[in-house]
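Before relying on records like the one below, remember that each one covers exactly one chain. Contacts with other chains, cofactors or solvent are not represented anywhere in the record.
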Amino acid sequence: MSKKLGIFCILLGILCLLASAGFVFYNRMEAQSGAEFSQTLLQAVQENVVETAKMEPEQPENPTEEVILESEPREMVTVLAGEYESIGILSIPALELELPVLTDWSYEKLKKAPCHYHGSCYESDFVIAAHNYPAHFGYLSQLRSGDLLTFTDMDAEVILYEVVVVDL
């Protein structure tokens, strides 16, 4: 009986090793797919940023209207790039990353590219979420205080951010 139990344990161990190898393979394929999709989407977003920036903004008929509009919160412009809406491009030079940022997050979208999670790039509450794929946010822990990040919105306005603390 102990011989049968030993064989069962060995077979169970082999099955567990095969399952873990399958999970590793699946995760690597998902990461590769996300990296490829992000780069394809990045090109479409970059083209749209240029096109949107070329458009002339509408001038208000009443000059006092402009003052009122500036005091209101700015809406982030979204542009359809491929089948997804995007709000801009996140650049992290220290990690040699340039990524499109999708408008709203979902688990399915996070597999494709970083997503807007909360707030506005024009306020102090802007949050971007991404997967920990190597081509997405997998190496954020390598950032150091003082590293710079930029977010370019669809109007080609560049907003600069500085890493203050990296807490692991």
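The CA atoms of residues 115 and 122 lie 16 Å apart.
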